[in-house]
C-alpha cells in the first residue's frame, strides 16, 4: 500500500511539474525586431524586420525555458525600398544565401520571479555567436481581446556587424548595433 501511495504521489508531482510548462507562439503582428546604428555620425538610423515567428517555452515555477525565434531577413524595412534592396545584398544580410536570422536559447535567467536575461545564440549569414538579451520589460496576463493567456517582453542587446561578416563602411557606419526585440506571444 505504501508503494502505491508513493507511486501515486510521484506521478501527481511529475504531472504538476509538466503542467507548469507553458508554450507561447509569437504573434507576428506585434513582434518586429529592430536595429539602430550611427550613420556617419550624422544620425541614429532605425530599421526593423516585418516578419518574425517562433515559440517561447516557459516554466515560471522552475525558472527555466527556451526561446526559438526566426526572422525573415528579406522583410527588412528601412523605410526606403531602394535601401531595403541594398541592405539585402552580399555586403550586409545577403538574403539570397541566408534568408533567415535565428535566435535560440535554453537559458533564461531569473532574479526571484522576474525574467532578466536570455542567454542564447544569434545566427546571421550562417555565423553563430553567443548573445545575451537583457529583458527591459515583461508581462504575462490574460489577453483582453483574445481571451487567452499571453506574454510580452522587450529585450535588448548590442552586437557588432563585423562579427557577422557585415562590416562594410565600418567604422564610419557604426560597427556596434543596438538590437531591440519587442515580442508578444499567445499561449497554446
Please give a structural write-up:
- This protein has 188 residues and is mostly beta strands.
- The chain has one domain: Lipid/polyisoprenoid-binding, YceI-like (Lipocalin), CATH 2.40.128.110.
- 13% of the residues lie in helices and 54% in strands.
- It has an 8-stranded antiparallel barrel with strand order 1-4-5-7-8-9-10-11.
- Strand 8 (114-124) and strand 9 form a beta hairpin.
- The longest helix is centred in the N-terminal third of the chain and has 18 residues, at 2-19.
- Residues 1-18 have low confidence and may be disordered.
Would you summarize the structure shown here?
With 188 residues, this protein is mostly beta strands. The protein is built from two helices and eleven strands; from the N terminus they run αββββββαβββββ.
Provide the residue-averaged pLDDT. Answer: 91
CATH topology: Lipocalin
Major beta sheet summary: 8 strands, antiparallel, barrel
Query: Structural class per helix/strand content?
Result: mainly beta
Spans with pLDDT under 50 lasting ≥5 residues? 1-18
CATH class call: Mainly Beta
Q: Which oligomerization state do the chains in this entry correspond to?
A: single chain
Fraction of residues in H or I helices: 10-25%
Query: How are the strands of the biggest sheet laid out side by side?
Result: 1-4-5-7-8-9-10-11
Tally the helices: 2
Strand percent estimate: over 45%
Radius of gyration (CA) equals 20 Å
Number of E-state strands: 11
Q: Given the C-alpha coordinates, what overall shape results? A: globular
Reported CATH architecture:
Beta Barrel
Distance between the termini: 39 Å
Q: CATH H level: which superfamily?
A: Lipid/polyisoprenoid-binding, YceI-like
Instruction: Output the helix-strand order.
Output: HEEEEEEHEEEEE
Integer tally of domains: 1
Amino acid at each position: 500500500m505504501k508503494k502505491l501511495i508513493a507511486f501515486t504521489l510521484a506521478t501527481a508531482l511529475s504531472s504538476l511539474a509538466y503542467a507548469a510548462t507553458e508554450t507561447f507562439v509569437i504573434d507576428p503582428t506585434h513582434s518586429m525586431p529592430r536595429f539602430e546604428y550611427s550613420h556617419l555620425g550624422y544620425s541614429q538610423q532605425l530599421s526593423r524586420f516585418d516578419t518574425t515567428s517562433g515559440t517561447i517555452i516557459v516554466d515560471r515555477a522552475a525558472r527555466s525555458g527556451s526561446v526559438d525565434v526566426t526572422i525573415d531577413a528579406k522583410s527588412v524595412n528601412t523605410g526606403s525600398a531602394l535601401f531595403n534592396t541594398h541592405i539585402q545584398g552580399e555586403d550586409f544580410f545577403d538574403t539570397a544565401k541566408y534568408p533567415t536570422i535565428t535566435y535560440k536559447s535554453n537559458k533564461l535567467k531569473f532574479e526571484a520571479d522576474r525574467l532578466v536575461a536570455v542567454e542564447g545564440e544569434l545566427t546571421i549569414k550562417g555565423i553563430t555567436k553567443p548573445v545575451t538579451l537583457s529583458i527591459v520589460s515583461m508581462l504575462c496576463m490574460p489577453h483582453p481581446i483574445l481571451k487567452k493567456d499571453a506574454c510580452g517582453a522587450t529585450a535588448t542587446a548590442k552586437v557588432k556587424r563585423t562579427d557577422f561578416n557585415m562590416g562594410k563602411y565600418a567604422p564610419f557606419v557604426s560597427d556596434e548595433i543596438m538590437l531591440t526585440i519587442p515580442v508578444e506571444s499567445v499561449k497554446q
